[in-house]
Amino acid sequence: MKWFETWFDSKYYHILYKHRDEQEAKKFLDNITQYLNITKGKILDVGCGKGRHAKYFNELGFNVVGIDLSLNSIAKAKLNETHDLKFYKFDMRNVFKENSFNVVTNLFTSFGYFDNSLDEQKTINAMVKNLKKDGILIIDFMNVKKIINNLVSKESKKINSVEFYITRELKDNYILKNISINDQDLSLKFQEKVHALTLIDFSEMLQKASMSIVDIFGNYNLDDFNASQSERLILIARK
């Protein structure tokens, strides 16, 4: 199995990242919907996890579908389903429903997991095919240059009595995070492996999918992107 099939389906993934800022996420979605002046329509959230973004989009009045490969994450997301908020276990490399969504989102670095760059292009193509004509694609990825320049090679933390030992390195243009876990008598190892994709990489993939980038932001406040300083790489493209 691929690393993302085991790690994202593990309870320890959710423990390690439970500190994620819900208010920051909501602020970003408020900012981006106001900036793009979208108030209604159908949204597909690709790589939705437990559905925190999808749920808030729904609260803002959108009809939302979330898809993710993790069965455990989708099971948790489904607890919040309504008539216009649905979740499905689904591989992002495949087209979910062609020409059906006004907006497709891929948020919080839910990309770059594959060993083969052809799979990355396939994912971009699928997201684009899910969009209606004039639809908007929103990709929120890490700013790899800043991440690499500030890479913390070793780190340990204790959360809910679970001990995490984390090492990080850049290898073959992938950012590797090796995670060793001690939970009482249980010892486990996982790995995150994310392709260090730049603005140029995304521009090329989007161009191949016949998409035009219309905006680039560097954080959730929608400030301009700066390759050496920005926290995020947020791309807005239109079909």
Characterize the structure shown.
The protein is of the alpha/beta class and 239 residues long. The chain contains eight helices and eleven strands. A seven-stranded mixed β-sheet has the order 3-2-1-4-5-11-10, sandwiched between helices. Helix 3 crosses helix 4. The mean pLDDT is 95.
Keywords for this entry:
239 residues; alpha/beta; Rossmann fold; seven-stranded mixed β-sheet; four-stranded antiparallel β-sheet; 8 helices; 11 strands; 30% helix; globular
Give the secondary structure arrangement, pairings included.
Layout: H1 3-7, H2 11-16, H3 22-36, E1 42-46, H4 52-59, E2 63-68, H5 71-77, E3 85-89, E4 101-106, H6 117-130, E5 131-142, H7 144-149, E6 154-159, E7 162-171, E8 174-183, E9 186-195, H8 199-208, E10 212-217, E11 232-238
Parallel strand pairs: 1-2, 1-4, 2-3, 4-5
Antiparallel strand pairs: 5-11, 6-7, 7-8, 8-9, 10-11
CATH class of the largest domain: Alpha Beta
Q: What's the order of the H and E elements?
A: HHHEHEHEEHEHEEEEHEE
> What structural class do you assign from the helix and strand content?
alpha/beta
Adjacency order of strands in the biggest sheet: 3-2-1-4-5-11-10
Distance between the termini: 34 Å
Mean pLDDT: 95
| Tally of DSSP helical segments | 8
Short description:
30% of the residues lie in helices and 35% in strands.
